[in-house]
Each structure stands twice: as structure tokens, then as C-alpha cells.
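Hi Prof. W.,

I finally got the Protein translocase subunit SecA prediction working! I wasn't sure whether to trim anything, so I left the full sequence exactly as given:
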Amino acid sequence: MLKKLFGDANSRYIKKLEPIIKEINKLEPEFERFSDSDFAKAIKKFQAVSSEFLLPQAFALVREAAKRTINQRPFDVQMMAGIVLHRGEIAEMKTGEGKTLAAVMPAYLNALSNKGVHIITVNDYLARRDANWMGPIYHLLGLSVACLNHEQAFKFEPQTKPDQDETSIEYENLKKISRREAYQCNVLYGTNNEFGFDYLRDNMAQSAEQTVQRDLDYAIIDEVDSILIDEARTPLIISAPDAESTQLYDQFAKLAERLDSQDYQIDEKHKTVVLTAVGTEKIIKMLGFDLWQQSNIKYSHHLEQALRAMALFKADKDYVIKDGEAIIVDEFTGRLMPGRRYSGGLHQAIEAKEGVVVQQESRTLATITFQNYFRLYQKLAGMTGTAATSAEEFDKVYSLDVVVIPTNKPMIRQDLEDIIYKTEQGKFKAIITEIQKRYKNGQPILVGTVSIEKNEKLSQLLKKENILHRVLNAKYHEQEAQIIAKAGEKGAVTVATNMAGRGVDIKLGQGVKELGGLHVIGTERHEARRIDNQLRGRAGRQGDSGSSQFFVSLEDDLMRIFGPKLKAVFPEDEPIKHKFISQAIARSQAQLEGYNFDLRKHLLEYDDVLNKQRSTIYKMRRQEKNILKRRIIDLLWMEHLETMDYLRDSVRLRAYGQQDPLIEYKKEGYKLFQDLLNNIEIQTKSVKKQIKQIEHEIKFKGVGRNDPCPCGSGKKYKKCCLNKK
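And this is what came out:
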């Protein structure tokens, strides 16, 4: 009743934005009279005014610049999203509602302070595309814009032609520049990895000239749920190879292969493998010694990782073997992550299992989580199509409110009820039948799968039925944008992993609206509702017709791990639509979301201990002019990171002794940090003393007892510095 009378909090927030939108719209005729040269001149006038008072004028000016340069007039709802982003909040905008353009308004307003605005994208392609696409608007407004890619940085400059080796049109108007120059630009596009690693590298640089970043002032994160939630548990690590032999990984991989299923128990929910009593006895016999004695602790670590690699991590799902390397597949986006490795020896164990070259384990030189990196910004904002279901986490971890922005046109997509099957085989059979039915009518279909393995399995089934289709997974990510862009054409069938072209719109081809628009089929429910909603959101953009439906089996990971054991009551191939099952799926997702939230919170609580230490060390290092002391800080900090890692592993066992592992970690971590600070001073004094001694020896080398003393006293050497030496 109260909600009907007063509306919910989100509706009230949107209502309060309407007077500001009216003010922006009133200013539109004034800026239509501007000549092109007037846009850049406005900067000096605007810089003298506070940003809140200036907002309507700045937004109206950007709207006019967008109309003149890229022939797009930002809608009122995009203006609303821009205001939300300027205030340091998250704007939830449905797919196709124009997030890229909405970010330009707050980027312009905040760039007026000359502190730099960072716009974070999920991949290099989108960083280049958005800098190039929005570049003409910034250029007319008198702002510089650049983008960071993994190997190279680019600045937007009209009429720049791409290099001969860069044939793609997306490189047009992009001039190669250094990373340092890129960070000096008013607006900079780039991935979360590039910004994070640059921060770590800057704090390892030996001089200020080697650093690239400015102060971290304001960031807008595109696909904010993907970066701040899905990737939050992944730490950024800069490492160097360790000298330890890799032979043990091969030996324990062979050992793990000799074990049977009765020798160990798998906990898929917590991703652990534990030996049974039978398995323990078998391992001791194979090795000829007790693995769990204190002196053999490193062998138990190798066994644990070999078991996890064998039982929990699957090729073409968790990783792919490409060019003789095991490359991780992002579980949320389905993208390959070259260069990123599982820590703690797990990656080496996977390499040994797959029979590829086992690369050396590495020592961590610097590390930070995305959670702590993005909390370094003075102001943070984000946008995505799916944030509302994670509003609690955004609030508790990042102090970010989520505001759901209304769509420009009413959403008319039909979200059909889930269909549940007993087995995966029955489910896939039904999916093929559904695709055949719609394919005959020419309706475009996008099929979302949770892994490369399932993606390729479905592709094989479609080939058997002679259904022409395109495949999009981590193995073919280079063609991602082109494949997704064509997914709305008449008769198109696209089979994609969860990556499903985030950031790339699917526009409907001619005559497709009359056929019902794009139809999206989900082949499995994901553990996060956001990912399901993201897949659904590929259809029905900007008021287009469209539909979506999920096909689920009781053998799917989500149902197998968390769902009830209902197999016995279901027929093999007949679909079931029952509220009880739908509720079980919803409960399972909510349970997993809560569990993953707790995991990320847990990670943050531990990382906060290291984060305070990292801030202190990095500040000390920046203020230190002596190169020698900086080197000592680097070496001792690297050792400290390893020690803290070991401490974190060891305190978990203290829970069995009724001690809180986190409190123990904080207490012992504090002691270790005090030792680190003392050691830095002791080692610096010691090395300085050694250097003085060496300098002295060099200076007085070969001087005879009766020669004049090199110190300049006028005395003979034997009566002066010889005794001091």
C-alpha cells in the first residue's frame, strides 16, 4: 500500500532527476547557435564554475557536440544515466540503451578539472572502438582522448591512417603514443587489467620518470558487475620466475592418475579434493614415506594441487591447450586469459596433467585485487545492464548505490518460462528441435552456453541437422564483434559462450521484427542471475521485439551441486514446467550468489590487511630518493608477500583450535610488517656500511706506508689513515 502511495526508492530518485533534465533540454537551442570553435572556448568559462552548478550546461553542450559529430542526440534517459555516473553511482541501463554515449557527459564534466578521467572497458577491442567512436565528440569539445591496449597506447587524432600491419578500420584516427602520454590525456579508455598493472609497475619503478599514471581521480567502469564482482576474487600479480625445479609436478601428476574414485572425495561447491583413508594409505605405499610429516610438507602441497588439477579442472571448460600452453578460460565471460596463471602451483599441476611444458613457478613481486585498486579512486562510478541483483554487494564493498534507468522505449521482449529435463541428453535434443522450428521461419537465434565444451557439442549436433550457424567462444574471440553484430540477421543461428559480445549491440536485420525479433536460448542456468539476465538482454533492445527461454536439466552443474535429487520422478525426454522446480533453481542461484559474495567479502577482509601494508610501503618508496634503499624495499617486500601468503594458508588450520583465522592473520601480519620495517632500516645501514668499506679499500689500494696519505692531510699514510683502516 505504501509503495503504491509513495513509489519505491528508485522511482523517487528518477523523479528527482526530471527537473534537471528539463533544464538541460531548455538549454538546447542556446548551444545549437554555437559555431564549432565555440565548443572548445567553453572550457575556460566552465572551469571557473563548480561542477554541480555547471552540470545542465555541460550536459547540454555535450549533447549538441554529439549531434554535430556522430549524428546522435543523447536521449533524456542517457542524460539521467550521465547524472547518476557523475554523482559516483551505478547506472543500470538495459542492453542497447547507449551506455557508451551516456558516459561522455560525466567524462567531459569531470575532465574539466584536468585530473584525468578513466573509462574502463572489458577488452582492448572496446577500448579502441569507444575511443575512436566517441573521439570526434571530445575533439570538438577541446579535450584529448586516448586508449590503452596491452602492447600499445593510442591517441585520437582525426585523419590518422593505420600502420600497414594494422589493416582494421578500428585503428583509423588512432595515433601511436607512449603510455605516459596516454595518461596525460583528459579522457583515457582501457581495460581493468591495463590500469591495474600500470599502478603496480609504477610502484616498482626506480625513478619518477619511469612512472606513467597520474593521481587516480575519477573512473567510470563499463560492465561494472563483470569487473567489480565476477573478477573481484582474481588478484593482479606481477611475478618473476623462481629457480625451483618443476620435476615434482610431473611426478605427482603421474601419481594422481593411479588413484581411483574411491581414493578421494570431491567437493565441487568449495573446489576441494580430500583423500580418503584408503587413498592416504595407497599414497604412502607408492611414495615409501609419510607425506604428512613436517619435513615432507612440500610434497603434500604438490599432491593436493595434482589432485585438484585432475579432478576439478577440465580442458575446454576451465582452460584450453593452445600452442603448447594451458590458457585459463574466464568462467564468467568465456574469454581466454593469456598471461594469467593459477597461483600456488595449480597451473603447473595442470600443465603436468596435460603433458605440456611445465613452466617454472613464480615469485610475486607486486599484487593487488581489483577491489582494492578501484577503491583508490577519489570517485568511482559504473554502468551495466545487470546490477540490481547485486546491489547489496556494491553498497557494502564499494559504497556504490545502484540506480535503474528507465528504457527509452517500453521493453516488449517475452521471457518464456524455463523448460526442465531429467538429463542433459534430453535437454540438447529439445534445444535442437526448437532451433529447427525457428530456423525454418528465418527467425534469428542466439544460443548461450556455459563452456567451450558445451558450445562445441551443440555445434556438432547442429551440423548433423545441416543447420548453418556461427560459433563464438574463447577459441575464436578475435571475430567476436563481427559474429555478434550479425546475430540479428534473418536466418542467423549463433552459438556463443557467456562472452556473448558484451558491449556489442545486436541490431535486427530487415524483416526480422515481423518474425518475432531475436530469440535467445539459454542452455543452462548460470550460478549468478546477472549472467542469465545479461544473456536475455541480447534480445529486445530499444523496444525491438524479441524473446528468451532457458532449457535446464537436472544434470546441469547448478542443479547437480545445489538442486534437489529429483531425477527419479522425471521422465527422460519430456519437458516439465513446474513452479517447484523453478523455485528450486531460483533458490540455488540465490544460495550460490550468497556463497560467492561471502567468498569475495572474505578475500577483501584478508586483502585489507595487506592493502594497508602495501599503501605504507608504496608511500615510503615514492618518498625515498635513495635508489639503494628502494632496491632493498623491493627485495624485502617481495619476501614479505610470500611470508604473508604462507601465513594466510597456515592460519586456516587454527580454526580447528577454536581460534579466529582472520584475527590471527591480522595479529601475526602486524608483527611481520613491523619486522619488515625494521629490516629495511637494518639492511640499508648494513649495505651502506659495506659500500663505505669497499670505497675505502679502493681509494687506499696500492698506497705504500711512507707515501703521502690520499686523504689530503699532508701526513704519511702510516701515521694517518692506515691505522683507521
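The chain has four domains: 1-236+370-404, 244-359, 414-577, 594-697. Does that look reasonable to you?

Thanks,
D.
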